[in-house]
């Protein structure tokens, strides 16, 4: 009980002590609490990190092994492949060697044979020369033929001109224009003119019309050149010469064939037509120049005018020395020396 | 009394005849045409085509033909005047003189344009003309063939119409006639028909034309030969088969003599024929080469001028394009020299272009070919063609292509040297490229390249780094010691002088 009393006596202090302690505890509680949290957080953190580390370590291990497997697999493939390529290249090289030599041989033998091409080109060269010379010959021939033709035409043209202008030739007394007396010899044209015949006058051709009833023969045109004949066949045939003659013979129909059945009527019609066109005057027109008068002889002449009998009755001249005088001419005046000098120039057409 | 009555008719007929004859006479001079047209000559001539007197009909047709011949307006007027049906109708009925005149009118109308020719065809003229081809008289046949040819020459449809009318066999018969004019015109008509399409040419060939045409190639008549060669070349140009058929007619050694003909057009047409045959296949070209054709053509190019030599130039190009062997044959036949002469002599662009093309075809096969071309001093001329200010676009492209082809094969350095100095960059690239390929392997060439100043020139070229040109230049520079390259590079003297300045003599 004493203890009880002592306690009761000491109750105030006890209470104050309790309060003090409580206050003290209350004061430190926050600090302790934060400290405890800190410790806990550190510890938990450590644990979690350790766990994570553990996990990652596990993952690394797995990955390590898996990657190793993959890489080894890949590497094996690579090695295999490269070996293949290596082999391939090697064999290709060998094949190329074979092909090279074969192709070279083949080409040299069959495709591009150097010697055969050389031979070909040489042959071609010769052929070309041949062709060239042949063509040159050909063109030369042609040129020669052409010039010959041209010359011939020119000659003919000149001949024709000369014949046309034949009147320009010198005569005995009158020198022509191509024969100048002042030149030592006449010009070339003069000789040409002397050598050709003068051109004949154009004959007036009666132009028959095709259906002229009075026409006795048809002037059918036989072509100048007919196709050549075949050689004479064996048997009773005519000679080719005869046949040729026959072919070029002009067409000569008999009178009966040549004459139109209506020729009489046609001729009459034509006459009538002509009459109709030229019906001005029935009398033929006579020019004055052809005025013909009967010769009236003079009263006191003795000679008879009329035809001579020369050539019909007698053939020689009757009085050959009729006009001859046996005495030379005499010059009445002395000769003029200067005329003598020029005398030579009065040429007889040539010097 | 009756005489007086008759006299009136006589008078009328005489004056009609006189009128028609005078008009026909006047229509033959171009200066009268306009006056005649203004005077309404068409409407006056039309009734005279139906005149009872045949002479007047013929002369009226002749006058109409002359008018229609003059220009296409008048031809149009003839068509509009409904004159053609009359003509076609009477073409079947009348005598040969009238037929000739009517065919002349049809020809004169058809010649101007495809439309007018079509209107002639629409009138049914073709059948009548084909019937005229069966006529006995060569004059009628001639004018009918002429009209058919003029109709067919415009386009393929009209030519087809002529073929459908059955003209071809008759034209082939006409070729065989003895008359020269008829032969000429029939050959010309066949040529006009053939030129449009392979089918038409095949029709003509099927009618057996080639054999007859081939027979006439040695005919002395120049005009006939022109037409014959024209027809053959028109046949041969379409396909290999047709060309082979032409060749099979054994024309070959014979036509070469015609290259020496005195007539220019004969020569030109022969060369065209050879070209048309050669262009198809290497085999045909080979055949021509073996026959000595190339040598003949080369001579012909040397002898002729301007447009006449064009087909020959093209023929050489075609032959050389086929294979290197054929190109070698052209070179052996001295073709390159003639082409070079043609290239420098000719003034016209299209001939130069053809020559440039042919040279390019010859030189593109191998270094050997390119050397043969380069030795003929062709490259500077080609370059000149390419650079000339007034050159046509075609010539420029052809010259450039040829240069490129030849340069890419050329290893003949002396010929390349001059190009270093005056070629533009796009050509220079190829030139320097060739040098860069050859120099590393040829010591003599290296030496020559330095002494001739080529190296110096190369150093002066301004090339963009990384371009092909700069690569080539580097390749060339690598062939030489560094000092030489430096020595020749521009600005080296300055560098030397600088070194002199910086040099401190040891005292």
TrEMBL record, chain A:
Transmembrane segments: none annotated. InterPro entries: IQ_motif_EF-hand-BS, P-loop_NTPase. This is Spermatogenesis-associated protein 17-like. It comes from Biomphalaria glabrata (Bloodfluke planorb).
From TrEMBL, chain B:
It is found in: Cell projection, Cilium, Flagellum; Cytoplasm, Cytoskeleton, Cilium axoneme. Gene3D superfamilies: Leucine-rich Repeat Variant. One of its GO terms (biological process) is cilium movement. InterPro entries: ARM-like, ARM-type_fold, Armadillo. GO terms for cellular component: axoneme; microtubule; sperm principal piece. GO terms for molecular function: microtubule binding. The keyword Cytoplasm applies. Keywords: Cell projection, Cilium, Cilium biogenesis/degradation, Cytoplasm, Cytoskeleton, Flagellum, Microtubule, Repeat. Important for structural integrity of the central apparatus in the sperm tail and for flagellar motility. Interacts with SPAG16 and SPAG17. This is Sperm-associated antigen 6. It comes from Biomphalaria glabrata. The lineage of its organism: Eukaryota, Metazoa, Spiralia, Lophotrochozoa, Mollusca. The gene is LOC106066950.
